[in-house]
Design a protein that fits this description.
Chain A: Pfam families: ABC_tran (PF00005). Chain A: Keywords: ATP-binding, Membrane, Nucleotide-binding, Transmembrane, Transmembrane helix. Chain A: Belongs to the ABC transporter superfamily. The complex is a heterodimer of chains A (about 550) and B (about 575). Chain A is of the alpha/beta class. Chain A is about 65% helix and about 10% strand. In chain A, α1 runs parallel beside α5, α3 runs antiparallel to α5 and α8 packs antiparallel against α9. Chain A is elongated, with a radius of gyration of 35 Å. The two termini of chain A are about 65 Å apart. Chain B is elongated and about 110 Å long. Helix content of chain B is about 55%, strand content about 10%. Chain B is of the alpha/beta class and about 575 residues long. Chain B folds into two domains: about 300 residues, ABC transporter type 1, transmembrane domain (ABC transporter transmembrane region fold, Up-down Bundle); about 210 residues, P-loop containing nucleotide triphosphate hydrolases (Rossmann fold, 3-Layer(aba) Sandwich), CATH 3.40.50. In chain B, the strands form two sheets. A six-stranded mixed beta sheet of chain B has the order 6-7-8-3-9-10, with helices on both faces. A four-stranded antiparallel beta sheet of chain B has the order 2-1-4-5, with helices on one face. Chain B is built from 20 helices and ten strands. In chain B, about 55% of the residues are buried. Classes of the chains: A alpha/beta (about 550), B alpha/beta (about 575). At the A-B interface, α1, α3, α4, α5 and α6 of A face α1, α2, α4, α5 and α6 of B.
């Protein structure tokens, strides 16, 4: 079946992570429901039996009240205990599965290709991912557990009524399974398309709201502000239409189950009346049968919401499922031969969906300890070349051999974590003394010394906010901690004021000996660090002058001063 | 009732990606202008909720018929005489389902309508909020409040309100129906009902503080994942994927065990509800049984219950607790719903508004370059403690090209924003092409302006859509013309009709500025260009190309450029130097 196929990776994950707890949770849920049904049925039997016995004082005296009364109290306690156990088990299991799910998702998105997608559309992908994770946690709690409970209930009711008359049991069981599972399944089928429409409408609502707020000035000045407001409203109307349809489905499913419940109750009542008047069962048993039928459809009501959410869950597992497949081998990196740190031969790179290659049959070497600046107009391929050397990108053709590298990215990404762990990302084994040394070299020791928590200070949201210059210095400290013979610097001082930029560059320069360095830049002060300048245009190297050559100075002079 | 009681609570509190990067609740400025009743559900929602009372109350006659029918069976009546009772039971059941469906539907419709209205209000006031208003919410925060957070409003209005109403009235109606037969079961239920909230409060209280902290941490589990995904480039660069994945797992596992420690207590409060509900039913059943046997003869107002009456009471006992259980299962909807209502109300704050803002759609047919005359302008909103502009005068002749040159903080961007009517003036006046800039004329005046910001926004859409922006007067020919003028053909070749990346990722800084030029060139009927630091963050070659493009577009139009780039300023007819607080004119 299609549904099963879609859910297979998710269910496999559930099974791998917490199989026994998941089963125990479903079992306890079934016990809870059965205890409830038995409690009501037994109470009915007890009342009826005592009412008959109470008609004469002799029978009233002989009636054993204690066994049924104790059983009733036991069922009440059992139901409570089972319910408590069920909630603990199902939650523990779900939390465990979600922990595993997060780890797997993270690993998936760390693959080069998916990581690139993530960089391009972080906001939309992350929104989608969160929504999908949230949808998946309802799969077990709202769909799988209630379905298991419903089936167990139907069987139990069939057996109970079947002991009175096989046909009644068979009929009631069949009716319960057909309507109790059939109605939610039909609802789930109808809900699928609307759930998807709703998810898309919400994505549109979100991205249009972002466009409205972030692009407000551009919209206002082009006379499109009102149109954008209307666009947001239209997305909400689409979401409302989908919501409304889902609500119709839920309402119909609820009404369907309600009618089924009434029919089952009426049918059982008549069957019990017929059996009693035929003398096949006595009065108390008839009362028990009626009350069991009354309680029988209760667990199916839980499936009504689960059915409507099943559509959303399907979409989520269709999108997340593939990320749970075993990872493909990482991009292999060939070591460069002796004497060279980077050796690129005849390499071409084309970005996905782009008709023209970003790099054309490029030949490029960097000798050990050499410093090279990449310059060229924006879009010439500087960042692509850096990504190729760093191993973030693979070449479509040609050969790439590089040493282990450390990349100083254009944007400094700090994590919501301690200063220590932010630094140790680059060197997991580094001790505090090493970290302090790196911070000192990067010019951050004063700041860190002034922090009461020192290296234990939290960064990011709710923690310490760093200025642009300070985060750059932190990135520099990370670079220094990294034990790599090749440094790749992507516009290392862009966006810093002149004084800070010169200080950062001075610190970089003094730490450079022993490393080969490739700097992508359009600023003169950065390119001045280099022994050789590579001028890129349209993905090709057009010139590569060395220090001392005339072209070198001309190229430097054409760059932006401070 | 213990808000921490519900099962789904623990798993539903995970934060959304945008939440993860917003400021915590405590640091947010409380909005004092907000009327309190804005956070309360609208009246029609309450009216719709009352519709759902009917099916719950109809259980009374249905249970009565059922008890009668069982009584008849025991009395040995022929099954044919019970048919009508059974038909009545079924008919009432069907009626209850129909009424319940209608009630759910109406409650949904009114709740959904409220949600749309609340969203509209928030969106409209966000659109009017001046970009110079420092308290204007960031786009991520606003989008998250409008999209994810408001999703909690629907369950709150459509489910919680009816549940609360049922929990208030249905138990009372049931008690009132039991008392005439016997006061003992009524007393049992009455005792159990107030004990439930009491015990739940006692247990829930202690758990609540701990569990709320825990829920915040649960949210941080998603936050941790999203934070690391956002910084994936850095993690990959340092080969720290395995390290981070293991930490992610360890964090989630330790969070799980800590959460379970809290849930073990929190779930006790819901177990108490279950226990009392089950014991309530059991005690009612046991009392009735002993009553029949003559061991507990009191209670029935001196008489004796018959079988049907006893069964009727037994059938009502679980129904007495049902609304309470329903309420407890939707309890978490309330906290989330009220938080969402408050967040929307905060977005709907007025703050500083832009001037005009209703998109005058009438085309400007005045092709002559506009003059700009600024008299005694004063403005201080954007700066915290000092005036940005004070008593500032400027005359720009039609067709003149003027550079406003000054360091950052000198107010040159604010000046440009004020000419565009992005915030109301505090002092002085601005006259453009002979028309005084007021809220009545602002939209019409903006129709003649071109705005080129230093960070043009890239909208979700293709390159072509980003140039045309859906303007009715910008057809394919104009878009292609603008593309050529801004030298963007190679980008069009590379990206074609593909959607551009978030915030223009994949485009270089120069390409984004060229896109802004193309956007500017595509419009028609413009005669005043306002450019805010168009060459900031660009390399010299690209800056020169952007300058040429700007001058090309500005042919025959008035141009005012705010910049700190001396090369760009030198290409203008005149340079006006701005210093912090002092404006002085130079040749």
């Amino acid at each position: 079946m299609g549904i099963l196929h879609t859910f297979r990776p998710i269910i496999a994950l559930f099974y791998r992570e917490r199989r026994s707890m998941l089963l125990a949770g479903a079992l306890l849920a079934a016990v809870t429901v059965l205890a409830g049904i038995m409690l009501l049925g037994l109470s009915g039997w007890f009342i009826t039996a005592t009412a008959i016995a109470g008609l004469s004082s002799a029978t009233a005296f002989a009636f054993d009240v204690f066994a049924p009364a104790a059983a009733i109290r036991f069922l009440a306690l059992a139901r409570t205990a089972a319910r408590y156990g069920e909630r603990l088990t199902t939650h523990d299991a779900t939390l465990g599965v979600l922990a595993g799910l997060r780890e797997q998702l993270f690993r998936y998105w760390s693959r080069p290709q998916s990581a690139r997608l993530l960089v391009q559309r972080p906001s939309r992908l992350l929104f989608r991912l969160t929504a999908d994770i949230d949808a998946l946690d309802s799969l077990y709690l709202r769909v799988l557990v209630p379905a298991a409970v419903a089936i167990v209930t139907a069987l139990a009711v069939a057996v109970t009524l079947g002991m009175m008359h096989p046909l009644v049991g068979l009929g009631a069981g069949t009716f319960l399974l057909l309507t109790g599972l059939g109605v939610p399944l039909i609802a789930a089928r109808f809900a699928g398309a609307s759930s998807i429409r709703r998810a898309h409408a919400l994505e549109a609502l979100r991205s249009r709201s972002i466009d409205l707020v972030a692009g407000q000035t551009d919209l206002l000045m082009t006379g499109r502000l009102a149109a954008q407001v209307e666009g947001v409203a239209a997305a909400d109307r689409r979401a409302a239409a989908a919501d409304s349809r889902l609500n119709w489905i839920e309402v119909f499913a609820g009404a369907g189950l309600g009618v089924a419940s009434a029919l089952l109750l009426g049918g059982t009542l008549m069957a019990m009346a017929a059996l009693a008047s035929a003398g096949a069962i006595n009065g108390p048993v008839a009362a028990l049968g009626v009350l069991v039928a009354l309680a029988a459809l209760e667990p199916f009501a839980a499936l009504r919401r689960g059915a409507v959410e099943l559509g959303r869950t399907l979409l989520a597992s269709r999108r997340i499922g593939p990320s749970l497949a075993p990872p493909s081998p990482p991009l292999s990196r060939t070591a460069a031969r002796n004497g060279d740190t980077v050796c690129i031969a005849n390499a071409s790179v084309t970005h996905d969906g782009a008709p023209l290659p970003a790099l054309h049959a490029l030949n490029f070497t960097v000798a050990d300890g050499e410093r090279v600046a990449l310059i060229g107009p924006s879009g010439a391929g500087k960042s692509t070349l850096l990504a190729l050397i760093a191993g973030e990108l693979g070449a479509d053709r040609g050969e790439v051999a590089t040493a282990k590298s450390a990349l100083l990215t254009q944007r400094t990404e700090l994590f919501q974590d301690t200063l220590r762990d932010n630094l140790r990302l680059a060197a997991p084994e580094a001790d505090d003394a090493q970290l302090h040394r790196a911070l000192d070299q990067a010019g951050l020791n004063e700041l860190v010394a002034s922090l009461p928590m020192g290296l234990g200070t939290n960064l990011g949201e709710g923690g310490l906010g760093l200025s642009g210059g300070q985060s750059r210095r932190l990135a520099l400290a990370r670079l220094l901690l990294r034990d790599a013979p090749l440094w790749l610097l992507d516009e290392p001082t862009e966006g810093l004021d002149g004084a800070t930029a010169r200080d950062v560059l001075q610190r970089l320069r003094s730490a450079m000996p022993g490393h080969a360095v490739v700097i992508a830049t359009h600023i003169r002060r950065e390119a001045e660090l280099a022994d050789r300048i590579i001028i890129l245009e349209h993905g090709r190297i057009v010139a590569a002058p060395r220090r001392g050559e005339k072209v070198f100075d001309t190229a430097l002079a054409a760059l932006r001063p401070d | 009732m213990g808000p921490a009681a519900d099962a789904s609570l623990a798993l539903r509190s995970e934060v959304s990606p945008a939440d993860a990067c917003t400021v915590g609740e405590s640091t947010r400025k409380p909005s004092s202008s907000l009327p309190i009743d804005k956070q309360k559900p609208p009246a029609r929602v309450k009216a719709a909720a009352s519709l759902q009372l009917a099916p719950a109350l109809l259980w009374l006659p249905q249970a009565w018929l059922l008890a009668m029918a069982v009584g008849q069976i025991i009395a040995g009546t022929d099954w044919r005489n019970i048919v009508w009772l059974a038909v009545g039971v079924v008919a009432l059941g069907v009626l209850r389902s129909a009424l319940d469906a209608a009630g759910t539907r109406v409650a949904f419709l009114s709740a959904r309508k409220s949600l749309s209205e609340l969203r509209q209000t928030a969106i409209a006031s966000l659109a009017r909020r001046s970009p110079l208003d420092m308290t204007r919410p960031a786009s991520g925060l606003a989008a998250s409040a409008i999209t994810e957070q408001t999703e909690a409003i629907l369950p709150y209005l459509a489910r919680f309100q009816p549940a609360r109403l049922k929990a208030t009235y249905v138990p009372l109606a049931i008690l009132a129906s039991i008392v005439p037969f016997s006061w003992v079961p009524a007393l049992v239920l009455l005792m159990a009902a107030p004990l439930i909230p009491l015990f739940m409060a006692l247990i829930g209280w202690r758990a609540k503080a701990a569990s709320e902290k825990q829920l915040v941490e649960m949210g941080s589990m998603n936050g941790f994942l999203l934070d690391r995904l956002r910084g994936m480039t850095t993690i990959r660069v340092f080969d720290a994927v395995d390290l981070t994945a293991d930490r992610l797992r360890a964090n989630a596992e330790s969070l799980r065990s800590r959460t379970m420690a809290v849930l073990r207590v929190a779930f006790l409060s819901s177990a108490v509800l279950e226990l009392f509900a089950a014991l309530g039913v059991a005690m009612v059943a046991v009392y009735i049984g002993f009553h029949y046997l003559g061991q507990l003869p009191f209670g029935a107002w001196g008489g004796r219950l018959d079988l049907s009456e006893g069964l009727f009471i037994l059938l009502l006992a679980p129904a007495f607790f049902e609304p309470l259980r329903e309420l407890s299962s939707v309890w978490h909807d309330r906290a989330a719903g009220e938080a969402a209502l408050a967040a929307l109300a905060e977005l709907s704050d007025q703050g500083i508004a832009i001037v005009g803002g209703s998109d005058g759609n009438d085309q400007n047919d005045d092709d002559n370059a506009a003059s700009v005359s600024i008299e005694a302008l004063g403005y201080s909103h954007a700066a915290r403690d000092r005036d940005v502009l004070e008593d500032f005068d400027l005359e720009v002749k039609p067709g003149e090209r003027v550079a406003i040159l000054g360091p950052s903080g000198s107010g040159k961007s604010t000046l440009l924003a004020l000419i565009a009517g992005l915030a109301p003036l505090e002092n002085g006046r601005i006259v453009i092409g002979g028309t005084h800039l007021t809220s009545a004329t602002a939209d019409q005046l903006r129709n003649r302006m071109i705005w080129i910001g230093q960070r043009p926004h890239i909208f979700a859409g293709s390159l072509y859509q980003n140039i045309a922006l859906g303007r009715p007067d910008v057809d394919e020919a104009r878009t292609n013309g603008a593309l050529a003028l801004a030298a963007l053909e190679h980008v069009a070749e590379a990206h074609g009709n593909l959607q551009l990346g978030d915030g223009g990722s994949g485009l270089s800084g120069g390409e984004i500025l060229r896109l802004a030029l193309a956007r500017a060139a595509a419009g028609s009927g413009k005669n005043l260009i306002l450019a805010d630091e168009p060459t900031a963050h660009l390399d010299t070659v690209t800056a020169r190309e952007i300058t040429e493009g700007l001058l090309e577009i500005a042919r025959g139009k008035t141009l005012i450029v705010a910049t700190h780039d001396p090369i760009l300023a030198a290409r203008m007819d005149r340079i006006v130097r701005l210093f912090p607080q002092i404006a002085q004119e130079a040749a």
